[in-house]
Structure formats: C-alpha cells, structure tokens
Amino acid sequence: MKTIAAISTAIGNGGVGIVRISGDDALNIVLKIFKPLKKGEIKPFSLRLGNIIDEKNNTVDQVLVSYFKAPKSYTGEDVCEINCHGGNVAVNRVLELLLNNGATLAEGGEFTKRAFLNGKLDLTQAEAVIDLINSKSEKESKASVKQLEGKLGDEIRNIKDEIIGLLADIEANIDYPEYEDIEEVRREKIEDILEKQIARLSVLEESFNSGKILKNGIMTAIVGKPNVGKSSLLNLLLKEDRAIVTEIAGTTRDTIEESVNIKGITLRLIDTAGIRNTEDVVENIGVEKSKKVLNDAELVLFLIDGSKGFLSEDKEILNEIGDKNHIILINKIDLQNEEISINDENIIRISAKTGEGMIELENKIEELFNLKNLDSENELIITNIRHKDLLNKAKQGLKTAKETISTGLPIDMISINIKTAITSLGEILGESISEDVLNKIFEKFCVGK
Ligand SMILES: Nc1nc2c(ncn2[C@@H]2O[C@H](COP(=O)(O)OP(=O)(O)OP(=O)(O)O)[C@@H](O)[C@H]2O)c(=O)[nH]1
Ligand SMILES: [Mg+2]
Q1: Looking at residue 444, what is its pLDDT?
Q2: 317 falls within a domain
Q3: pLDDT one-digit tens code per residue, 425-435
Q4: Which of 76, 229, 312, 353 is 20 to 30 A from 32 (CA-CA)?
Q5: Whether residue 395 sits in one domain with residue 344
C-alpha cells in the first residue's frame, strides 16, 4: 500500500490546519521536511514542535507533529498529523512537500477505507464516520455516534451468530437422519429462533422510518393564498429576514427553501407563491410550482388569514391538500379575527408578527412525527438505505425459511434461505462485499477523512 497524504481540515482561515499522512513511509517522509526544535528521535504517540522546511531551506510554517505508530492509529498504519497554522497557504505547501517526497494524494475517504480494510472499524462504523461529518441535527448526530461506537454492528453480528448457530444445527440434522423422533421438537425450536430473529430484523428495518427523518429532515411546504403571511412565517422560523414580505398579494413568485432545526431534527422549509388564479405569466408559473411542492411535501403548513376568515379560495387549497400530513395555521390572530370553524384535528392559531403560537406549532410537529419517541440516543436507528435493503433481504430469507418449515417440508430445504440471510448481514458489516460497493461507499467521503 502506498503512503497517502491529504489536508484533513476544511479549506479556509482557522486556528489550525491539519495535514495527515498514513502508510509505512509516513514518518520517513515527514522527517524529510520537518526539523524538530529539540534534537532526538520522534517517539510514537507524542507531539513535537518544529519547522517545516522546503527545498530551498526556507521555513514554511512552525508546526506540531504527532506520530501514531501502527497498529494503534486511525488507519491501523503509521500515521503522522502535521498541525499547521490555519489558512490555505501553509497547509497546501506542506501537502505539496509531502507529495514531492514520496507520498501519494489520498482519495476521498481513503484513510477511513484503510481503517476498515485493516479491521479497525466494521463497515457500519466507517459509514457512521461520514454520516457524523454530514450531520445536520442533534438527533442525527447522536444516531451516527451510536453507530460509530459499533452498536449497530454488534446487533447485526449478534443476529448473524444466532442464525449461523441455527444453520449448524440444521446441517447436523442432515447428517443424522435417524433422529426421526426429535424432528418435531427440532422444527419447533427452529421456528422459534427464526421468529425471534425476524422480529429483531423488523425492529431495525422499521427504525429506518425515523432514520429517514433524521437524515433528510422533513420536507415542509408553507402554502396558502396570497398575503396570508407565509413568508412572514418562514422568516419567523428562520429568525432572519430571508424572504421579502409586503402587504401586496403575490409578493413571493418563486419557491424559497431553507432549513431550520426543530426539536432536534431538520425541517426543510419551502415558502411558496400564494396560490390563486392569475393572468400574470410569471406568477402563474410560481403557482404551479407551489402546487407541485405541496404534493411532494411530507408536511404541509397551510396558512389562513384569520382577519379575513375561511374563504372559498382557502377551501380549494385545503381540498388540494386532501389527506396529506398537514397543520392548519390561522394567522394574524393579533388582529381582529373572524369566526372560523373548520373540522380538522390539527389547527393552531398563530401570529407570524408577534410569534404567538410557535411553541404550539413545534409541539404539533413533534406529535405528528412522533419525535418524542425518536430517541436516537438510546435506541438503534438505521439511517442508511443500504442497511435497510440488506436487512430486508435477510428478513425475507428468514421468512421464507419459516414458511417452508411450517408447511412441513424437509428441514434441510431452508439452508439456502438462511445462508442468504447470513450473507446479507455479512454485507452490512462489510465482511463479504464487492470492491465496487466499497468504492461507492467511500467516494462519498471528503478527502482527508
Ligand atoms: N398583523 C399581522 N400581519 C401579518 C402577520 N403575518 C403577516 N402579516 C402581514 O401580512 C402581509 C403579507 O405577509 P407575507 O408574509 O408577505 O404573506 P405571503 O403569504 O408570503 O404573501 P405572498 O408571498 O404574496 O403569497 C405583510 O404586510 C405582513 O406584514 C400577522 O401575524 N399579523
Ligand atoms: Mg410570500
């Protein structure tokens, strides 16, 4: 394996910038460009202050070098990290010098890929690294941390071990057909084990419903007829003047998307053009867009102007919403309000001007998406579609096995289905996985991780 190097910190100005190098030659290459202030060899697991010197003997930066000796490092190889002063120039020069002295530029995720290949992490943990880096909300990051700690891997390994035990048992049965009398007992035992493992796989698979929310947030459309206060609500939730607000109906022409964190998860808010029949070509395109966003949304916040009442235009929009997940927001309650009666469970009275009703709105969203029970700190939640698909494949294998057993067919017929389940679970852990799939997973990483 080549010795690889990359900048591991984000581009831009900052306190420090870290250049990382991993491989057999890591220390040798570093020593070619690094002059410690005090003499003496660099000991493993220590930090040394010194200067990076270029080809012309000029000092590039004063740095701290850390040295992690294999196998006790992130990648399992010899790793050095050069802590430079932040900013683009120094880190880029240091990287260039490492490359000139024998290192190869690391590909995205290559450090983590090596950690996986060297057995430092299973694949679920490696995938958790990228998820953690990309986390946008508190709950999402907690789910990633749990996975990084190996909790998901442990559960999968445990289920897999149970099924491997079962397979061994079944194959033993093939070898000793004379045990006719205990066949029934065996059948029951096998069915029992299958059922338990199917249930465990189902729990994990179903957690993806929450996992999806954690990872992608909730796509939330703010809709209503013109001038009801949609953009005002967007601005209020964002706590910034993002969208133009005027008293002119038809102010918002295009959709505006912004994210906000609520109750530990991300709401992807989309403010839309007020829906009405209009001759204006541009506005009409906006209205069509609004309807599309409404249809695609996972949550619709439907605004009504409480000072005007519930009018026929509002009714039309409510019809369009149909049985989609929605909350009706009667806005402008700081003004004199009309009597409004709508037969709907989810109605909240708010003022986008004073902020009244926002707590109720957040609580309602929490209730609708069952966010209180979305406990990413204490429960395993899978957020990765690859895991979900493989869990499903494993579950189907076991289900088919269980059906076969219960119809009275010979026990050994289910070996193949059980093996499918074992292979699928192994793939989640990265035990039996093709180079292609691996590359696909790691190419989503940033360089330097
Ligand atoms: N008194 C009061 N005025 C509000 C409230 N919410 C919005 N408004 C006012 O209503 C007008 C329209 O607000 P917008 O947020 O632009 O409404 P909109 O629904 O985005 O309108 P379009 O983009 O035209 O569809 C503005 O003058 C706001 O200041 C509220 O809760 N109380
Ligand atoms: Mg608007």
Answers
A1: 82
A2: yes
A3: 999 999 988 88
A4: 76
A5: no
Give the pLDDT mean for 386-412.
Answer: 93
Q: Give the atom of ligand 1 at the shortest distance from the alpha carbon of 351.
A: 31
- Total number of domains in the chain: 3
Q: Is 255 in the pocket of ligand 1 (CB under 6 A)?
A: no
HSE of 369, CA atoms in CB hemisphere, 13 A: 30
439-440-441 Cα angle (round to 5):
90
10 Å CB burial of residue 180 (0-12, 13-18, 19+) is: exposed
The partner residues of 259 in beta bridges, in order of sequence, read 268
Query: Is residue 229 in contact with ligand 1, taking CB distance under 6 Å?
Result: yes
Is 278 close to ligand 1, i.e. is its CB under 6 Å away? no
pLDDT tens digits, one per residue of 269-291:
999 999 999 999 999 999 999 99
Q: Which residue has the tokens 């074992």?
A: 422
Give dist(CA 418, CA 388) in Å, integer. Answer: 18
What integer pLDDT is reported at residue 424 of this predicted model?
96
**336 Cβ below 6 A of ligand 1:** no
Residues 234 and 346 in one domain: yes
- Helices 110-117 and 123-134 meet at what angle, rounded to 10? 160
| Ligand 2: centre distance to CA 284 (Å) | 14
Q: Which atom of ligand 1 is nearest to the CA of 235?
A: 15
Which domain, by its residues, includes 226?
A: 219-371
Ligand 1 centroid vs 237 CA: distance in angstroms?
14
Does residue 75 have its Cβ closer than 6 Å to ligand 1?
A: no
Q: Ligand 1 in contact with 244 (CB < 6 A)?
A: no
CA 244 to centroid of ligand 1, rounded, Å: 10
Q: What is the mean pLDDT of the chain?
A: 93
With 70 as the cut, is the pLDDT of residue 10 above it? Answer: yes
